[in-house]
UniProtKB/TrEMBL annotation:
InterPro entries in the record: Nucleoside_phosphorylase_d (IPR000845), Nucleoside_phosphorylase_sf (IPR035994)
Gene3D superfamilies: Nucleoside phosphorylase domain (3.40.50.1580)
Alphabetical GO biological process terms: nucleoside metabolic process
GO molecular function: catalytic activity
Domain Nucleoside phosphorylase: 27-155
Protein name, UniProt field: 4-hydroxy-3-methylbut-2-enyl diphosphate reductase
Domain of life the protein comes from: Bacteria
Family matches, as Pfam families: PNP_UDP_1
Source organism (scientific name): Nonomuraea wenchangensis
Amino acid sequence: MTGLLICAALGIEAHAIRRGLPAHLTDVRVVAIGIGPRRAARAAERLHGQRAVAVVGFGGAVAASLRPGDVLVADEIRYRGRVHPCPWAALLAEELARAGLPARVGPLLTVDHLVRGAERRRLAGQGVQAVDMESGPLARAAADRPLAALRVIVDAPRAPLLRPATLARGLAARRTLAAVGPVLVRWAAAAGPHRTIAQESVPFPLLKEPLT
């Protein structure tokens, strides 16, 4: 197997991550897969032969305690009524803390639409910390590979996405993504075969809306 595959939805996210990586690395690939679960599902075919997988980019908070600029590391990814555990989340959070990037660890939900208002509050009541649009299909395909899902928050209940300040928040989040790259490399090395942890998706009955 080769090394680490880092998947980002947007080109600007992928560019930021590449910019922060050491130039000499040959076993790390950063790819922009496009926005949404369908594109992520197509990208999941690229996981063959990869030793470790990370899904990284911007995210939206539903928990009121998260603010723009915060980093969330998923300890589980909820998608299509199932929960995909991320047993390497604590290891990644430790590596981030060592790099001066403290992170929250908690559930991430993959959706196919922008989440606002009452839906944010309902999801927060179910324990969801943040949402994205790509991690679910990749988590489903990752099988027993080390998997990380990391989101830098750009919008939150008190900082909606469609506001003038979003641009400044996005630029700040991009700088954070650049700092995350080397941390992911260290995480992937530490989460090698000798650290394999059993994982199995389980039903999540609280998620009622069908996702396409």
